[in-house]
Amino acid sequence: MGGGDATNWDEDSYRRTILQERELQSQTVFRTAFAPSQNPNPDILVVASSDGSIAPYSISSCISTQPMRINKGRHQQSLADFSVAEPLCLLRAHNGPAYDVKFYGDGEDSLLLSCGDDGRIQGWRWKEILDSEVLVPMQVNHLNPVLNLVNPQHKGPWGALSPIPENNAIAIDTQGGCIFSAAGDACAYCWDVETSKVKMVFRGHSDYLHCVVARKSSNQIITGSEDGTARIWDCRSGKCIQVINPENDPKLKKASSWVSCIAIDTSENWLILAVGAEPFLTRFNINGIVLSQIQCAPQSAFSASLHPSGVTAVGGYGGLVDVIAEFGSHLCTFRCRGI
Fold it and tell me: Mean per-residue pLDDT for 39-50?
């Protein structure tokens, strides 16, 4: 048997390479959001990651620097096959993973909001982020948030306080001046943006919440939970008006035991984007009929964000983001740069 020449072996370099690969594999994109713009096509995509950072990326730059397609199926590609994109900046947003990111308002006057494992909802002025002098790759932006909300703690026996529950998702109602949060204590909260106080608590789920969306036209929110149900709530009374249990519907095949992701299109008709353990983005209507299925880059997808133009961003395992055009072609795929 022949052996390799170890004369120039660099042990330190080998260790760094292994550690970097492990970091890439452990990073997860939990949510993405398209930045508001006058351009009908999406320009900037903001990413919330498991390292606690939120970071904006230029979609056009990612497309222009996209390497030639590797000649193998997308399901066979490893993380090393995808290029690392440089963010416009990095915001250290949370102690622990950042689970969601949303925009409150339109244009440059909007707030960029994020929520995370530390139970906080924080907001920054989007214009200040765009105008910041530290908009350079790999530099953490230390802009102070203009909004800082913390989930309430619950009193137990002898007055003991519970841990602060995490925030797994947020939804926006700019007309009502509200932020809705899906929390780890099985409750959804309605926050008043002006007063920074909780206006209403939605109780009824038996396990922690994964997602929340707002139906502005009907003054309702929809929550999805680890208990396997989705619930529709009336925001005027705070009461649950409908429980949807996919496992009890014979029309739905291979129903999940938990509801991980709910999305509504711009017309606010029902549209569920099922993402999870498979590298596919599957569109269902409310009756469980498959509308389309597209293979995506993340081997396990955690979020899907819709742009009015029809572009979809899918984020997930390995820090991967896949930007998919309306008819299923892949505009670009990149790995996010972590802190």
Answer: 92
Cβ neighbours for 82, distance < 8 A, ≥ 6 positions apart: 297, 320, 333, 334, 335
- Return the structure tokens found at 52: 């606690």
Query: What 3-state DSSP class applies to 158?
Result: helix
List residues bridging with 167 in a β-sheet.
183
Dist. CA 258–CA 23, nearest whole Å: 28
Find the angle CA(217)-CA(222)-CA(227) to the nearest 5 degrees.
170
Helix (H) or strand (E) holding 270: strand 270-274
Q: Which residues in 217-245 are b (16+ Cβ under 10 Å) and which e?
A: eeebbbbbbbbbbbbebebeeeebeeebe
Distance CA 225, CA 208 (A): 6
Mind listing the pLDDT tens digit for each residue in 150-168? 998 877 777 777 789 999 9
Q: Read off the pLDDT of residues 78-90 as tens digits, 9 standing for 90 and up.
A: 666 777 888 988 8
Q: Is 151 helix (H, G, I), strand (E, B) or coil?
A: coil
In the chain the first and final C-alpha atoms are separated, in Å, by 44
Closest CA to 82 of 234, 297, 238: 297
At CA 21, angle to CA 319 and CA 96, rounded to 5?
Answer: 50
